[in-house]
Amino acid sequence: MTDQFLLSIDIGTGGVRVAAVTPDGDMVATASVPVDTHTPKPAHAEQNPQDWWDGLRGALAKLVESVSPDRIAGIAIDGTSATVIACDRNGTPLRPALLWMDVRAAREAEALTDTGDPALKYAGMQTVSAEWGVPKLMWLAKNEPDVYDAADVFVDCVDWMNFKLTGEWAMSICTATCKYFYDSNWSGWPTTLYAKGGVPEALGKLPSRVLNMGTVVGELSRQAASELGLRPGVPVTMGGIDAHVGAIGLGVVEEGSLALITGSSHVMLGQTDQAIYSQGIWGGAYYDAIIPGQYTVEAGQISSGSVNNWFTQRFTLDAHRHGSASQELYGWLNEKAAQIPIGCDGVIALDHFQGNRSPFSNPYSRGAITGLTLSHTENHIYRAILESVCYGTKTIFDTFREKGFDPVKVVVSGGPTKSQFWMQMHADVTGVPMLFPKNTEGPLMGGAILASVGAGIHRDIGSAAKAMVEMAHSIEPDPQATEEYAFFHKRYLEIYHALAPVSRTTARHISEG
Question: How many CB atoms neighbour CB 70 within 10 A?
């Protein structure tokens, strides 16, 4: 088994990445090729699917310099979603793909929300996102009817790539459930929702095979193998959405575990044994989306690292005098913020600089910094912003608990994990230990885990994750600090409820002006 490798492929917004991973989780080689995104109009974002295939060829050409293609035992792909491709039965795209972040279908999303269909439970009792697949299909039907009618197949990014590899049409249950309202625990495709959205015929153009992640789609075809420089016959295993495959790569495969993927925002994906449908919790509970027989809950904070970066780059004069490199800036700020007491001597911030996704689902809420006096410094404000993000995280965790999901294992990945100070604050505010994996490349590791299952190396996703994911260290909460933060978290919530109506009015006034 030690002479075998799993090929993990990540189709991201910025490009194609590949990795060769051993069955015990050692990532021995990686390579990448950038892919262009085209934004011809406001709210539009498109990519050429052929660029993904060409990018894969280029990335593999680099990878095989380090790894023999004959030693690849299995393949799996993760990708962006909902990234919609309209194509003929041979997989030829009829137009550029509508990328996940394309939100031209905002009106269609509102119209779908107004249907009140029961399938909208997956929208977390809030407005359907224009990023999702069904509104984009509605947009195509209305604005490009020739393309919509001519299409033999509608698929997402991962599904199109799997077809290129195998010649087999299939859809990932992860994508179908999380972006297209599929529900394997009920009746499959929600026919009434698609009918109310004016796209009932789209159901006949989506792949009829909906496969769990870790299920073999087919074997690598001779044509694909020839183009990619690989050997034919390698099993290609169903992957899914990059963030969800990333959760697998972080070892979040057991009930009660949660992935906290950080960066400019916070994304949280948890596994539970029960359905949770509530405002601000996307999916409520996606059944089978990651692990067969489990529900996946999803929530997020729109602004986390982005608020930190906004303040650091624009208002930290003292910090800029002590260093220009990002690491120097944050290192100095963290050192000074650590000298400020919990609660920042009365300064409390609200982290809703781009609205709130979870749990309030309030796009009109806005950021705030309150309690300022002439004695406060930039260090107080910086720490208050860090604390506000943690308060937002705690609010989501508390909502989870109220609905029956208690996150007892939180695995964290992303750039902000470099800050021991901020990660300790997350643990202290939430009262939950934070675990950090040895390999933080969640999507690539997750793809390798799935590939190992399809190749028959590991029995299932859970056992594969246990064998391949190793934790580097953990941060335990300080009970005394948790108790102190609890008081200021209540103030944080009071500030939100006091300002939210004003923020809503102000936002509407600005948008109408």
Answer: 11
Tokens in use for 280? 């601000």
Ordered alpha helix ranges (H), 348-441:
378-402, 420-430
Residue whose token pair is 């972080």 = 250
By the 10 Å C-beta count (0-12 exposed, 13-18 middle, 19+ buried), 127 is classed as middle
Q: Rounded to two decimals, what is the model's pTM?
A: 0.88
pLDDT digits (tens, 9 = 90+) for 135-180: 999 999 999 999 999 999 999 999 999 999 999 999 999 999 999 9
Name the least confident of 34-48, 257-271, 318-332, 423-437: 318-332
CA 184 and chain centroid, separation? 21
Enumerate the β-bridge partners of residue 19: 8, 30
Q: 133-169 burial, b for 16+ CB within 10 Å, e for fewer? A: bbbbbbbbbeeeeeebeebebbbbbbbbbbbbbbbbb
User: Which residues have C-beta within 8 Å of that of residue 297, sequence separation ≥ 6?
Assistant: 268, 269, 270, 271, 272, 276, 281, 283, 284, 285, 286, 400, 405
DSSP per-residue codes, 117-182: -GGGGGGTTSPPPTTSHHHHHHHHHHH-HHHHHH-SEEEEHHHHHHHHHHS---EEHHHHHHHH--
CB burial string 306-332: b at 16+ within 10 A, e below? bbbeebbeeebeebeeeeeeeeebbbb
Burial class (CB within 10 angstroms; exposed 0-12, middle 13-18, buried 19+) of 13: middle
CA distances from 498 to 131, 222, 294, 330, 487 (A): 31, 63, 38, 31, 17
Residue 171 falls in which region: left (phi positive, over 0), alpha (psi -120 to 50) or beta: beta
CA 311 and chain centroid, separation: 25
Sheet of strand 282-287: strand arrangement: 282-287, 295-301, 266-272, 257-262, 409-413, 434-437, 471-475
In this structure, which amino acid lies at residue 166? T
Rounded Cα distance between 293 and 318, Å, is 53
Alpha-helical segments (H) within 19-83: 49-63
